[in-house]
Amino acid sequence: MQNSKGVEETVIPVVTEELQVDKERVPTGGIRVQKLVREHEELVDMMLAKDEVDIRRVVIGRDVDGPIPVRREGETIVIPVVEEVLVVEKRFRLKEELHINRRTHKEPHRETVTLKSEEAVVERVDAEGQTVPAQVPGERPFGVLRRDSEPRRRKRILRDD
Asked: Which residue has the higher pLDDT, 138 or 50?
């Protein structure tokens, strides 16, 4: 092409390239966790306390002025039982008392209990689900995880004290 002065000119087009970048999620691997429960038995050997109650009826047969309150005589609880008796006048007669003693004795108790503990086996897997070696350079190793930092679950045996 010639310009107005008669000099031939060449036109070079200027091209601009633009870059468009997209990203997509591609699974590259993962981990597999397997929880194992182990059981073991332990023998529990302890003393248990039992209370026994003795009730003795004591016949009194004496007139009293009115109801008598419950009282304690040492280790014995005394519960008065009164009745109204018809005479020309009404009176309270102490009919009987209940004397209650409590004795505690201890006896051995044995019981076998089953306790459980858990472990987690962790494996790294690749995108196809195949197991990857446990230790990869620069990463923490995978393996058996124990819950030792947390309090262990315990079975409780209830006791009478």
From this structure: 50
Q: Whose structure tokens read 């790294």?
A: 124
- Let me know: does 119 contact 146? Beta carbons within 8 Å: yes
Cα 126 from Cα 138, distance rounded (Å) = 17
**How many domains does one find in the chain?**
1
Distance CA 113, CA 37 (A): 16
- Phi/psi at 3 (nearest 5 deg)? -90, -175
Whether 5 maps to a domain, the answer reads no
CA atoms 121, 125, 130, 135: torsion sign: negative
Task: Give the amino acid at 127.
Answer: A
- Which residue range is the domain that position 55 belongs to? 48-105
Number of Cα atoms under 13 Å in the Cβ half of residue 85? 14
124-143 pLDDT, tens digit per residue, is 888 888 888 765 555 555 44
Q: pTM for the whole thing? A: 0.36
Percentages helix, strand, coil for the chain (3-state, rounded to 5) are: 0, 60, 40
